[in-house]
Amino acid sequence: MVGAVPKLRAHIRADRTTSGARGRALRIALISALVPLSLTLVQCGKAPNPAALAANSQANVQTNVQVVAKTNQQVASSDTFEDRFPAPQFRERFPSASEGFLQRQMSDFSPKRAVQQQPQPEQAPYRVASLAPQAPYQRPAREDLTTLVSMKSSAFPYFGNNPASDAPFLNISKGDRRGHRSYSGRVFWQDETYSDNRVLMHVPEHFDVRKPGVIVVFFHGNGATLERDVRDRQLVPQQVTDSGANAILLAPQMAVDAADSSAGKFWQAGGLKRFLEESANHLARLTGDPNSARAFANMPIVIVGYSGGFLPTAWSLEVGGISDRVRGVVLLDAVYGEMDKFASWIESHRSGFFVSSYTRYTARRDRELMSTLRQKGITVSEDMDGPLRPGSVVFVETGDGITHRDYVTRAWTRDPLKDVLVKMSATPSLALTRVASTNPSASSR
């Protein structure tokens, strides 16, 4: 037992020696790991060493160059980076001019300098609210306006009475059709002859509603249409334009292409007044100035009746409702009757003029009317050489070479309507202004 104890102690010492050696080794290893870490933590609070950074950067660049070179060597045998990832083009990032967005320059967003605007020769056909005085309205440039307008107050259709007989105007029926038997005994059907309510309106290019002007109301004769005869053959709109007078034309369609002089709605009391009131609104729209309707509604009137147009002319003077606005009456081979109505208007309206030009077909009635007027003490002239003045009464007989069919274009002179308007505009007291020169070629037609 005594010998065993020393041997046990020897083992204990050996274990302690080994454990101490292991502890020392562990402490040395721990210190070795902590010392570099503590140095690193200390350096975190200090500025980096430039020399160290340069060395590291150079090393990194060399490493990157080696990597890129190695990568290029690897991909050279197949495809390139540009092949696999093509660079985006400009058109793929921004739309072209033809696409949805508008391309702008930087100058578009820079402040703009005020630019002095030059005055425009023509102003827009509207008014702008302003505290300053407004410039006067200026009509936009245009050409002659000639058009056909449907109007309720035009001569036809007419369903009233014939004042000559106080019987219904449409005095013939056949099934559903209604018609009128004329004085000659011929029947004209309503749907063919008395259903056109259009009016030919003509506004010359030079017409100015702000200046004194006149409305010419033209009643055509038998067997006529507005387009074929009044406009194209008799050249009534052209004569108005060529006169240079500040005048416009209204020509209602009477019986369509028929030997009939019926006056239709112009037989009725106030018929001419309603016709001109409705026309004023249409003329205002036609000329593009809505404010001009009032001027048209008060403008003086000249009534021209050719051949069978004497009947609506006479009744318009008698019962039309605005005979005081009539500044003149012109009859072109048209005194076939109603002399009492013409004589009454001439006697009671000495501020207007009266002209009747005639052929042998109407000579007897014209001479009868002259005699009646002379008996009333009214001076009558028998030529158109002098000017037209308020109160002028003129009868002009034309020779045998002048035909009734061509009378609207050739009577005492070429284009007689034009001649009347020229003479009328030479007299300021007749309230008509001549705003354009006569067309030199007009007299050679």
Short description:
By secondary structure, this protein is of the alpha/beta class. It contains 13 helices and 13 strands.
Can you give a write-up of this model?
This protein is an alpha/beta fold. The protein has helices spanning 4-44, 50-75, 81-84, 90-93, 190-193, 226-233, 236-242, 271-287, 293-297, 310-319, 339-348, 363-375, 416-425, and strands spanning 145-150, 161-162, 167-168, 172-174, 177-181, 187-189, 198-203, 214-219, 247-252, 301-306, 326-332, 353-358, 393-397. Strands 1-7-9-8-10-11-12-13 form an eight-stranded mixed beta sheet, sandwiched between helices. The chain has a three-stranded antiparallel beta sheet with strand order 4-5-6. A two-stranded antiparallel ribbon has the order 2-3. Helix 10 (310-319) crosses helix 11 and helix 11 packs parallel to helix 12. The radius of gyration is 53 Å and the shape is elongated. Residues 1-14, 41-45, 52-57, 74-78, 90-95, 97-117, 126-133 and 439-445 have low confidence and may be disordered.
How many E-type strands? 13
Overall geometry: elongated
Measure the end-to-end span. 170 Å
Helix content: 25-40%
Instruction: Tell me, rounded to a whole number, the average pLDDT.
Output: 79
Write down the secondary-structure element order: HHHHEEEEEEHEEHHEHHEHEHEHEH
Largest sheet: 8 strands, mixed
Low confidence ranges: 1-14, 41-45, 52-57, 74-78, 90-95, 97-117, 126-133, 439-445
Beta-strand percent range: 5-15%
- The strand order across the widest sheet is 1-7-9-8-10-11-12-13
**Number of continuous helical runs:** 13
Q: Which structural class best describes the helix and strand composition?
A: alpha/beta
Radius of gyration: 53 Å
